[in-house]
Write a structure and sequence with these properties.
single chain; globular; five-stranded antiparallel beta sheet; 0% helix; mainly beta
Length: 81
């Protein structure tokens, strides 16, 4: 199954971008592509190596990443196929 994450916000290379994941492969494209099957929406606050995610699927979650970034994103999560 192909996972699609369409995001708007600051911190990615472009203000609007879409990440497409198939297994462990990831590809990011410019523009906001709405997934055919929407699973949820989320807000992601990435401050250095800590990420706070507020989502309709997982409610509130904290993640630790190896990369250090500053991002504020609104996203739509979905799938194709």
């Amino acid at each position: 199954m192909v996972e699609i994450f369409a995001e708007i916000g600051f911190g990615n290379e472009t203000f609007c971008s879409t990440e497409i994941e198939k297994g462990k492969l990831e590809h990011r494209i410019r523009g906001f592509v709405i997934p055919p099957k929407i699973r949820g929406v989320y807000l992601r606050f990435w401050i250095y190596d800590r990420v706070l995610v507020l989502s309709t699927r997982n409610m509130i979650s904290w993640q630790k990443k190896s990369k250090k970034r500053v991002k504020i994103l609104f996203g739509v999560e979905g799938a194709k196929g």
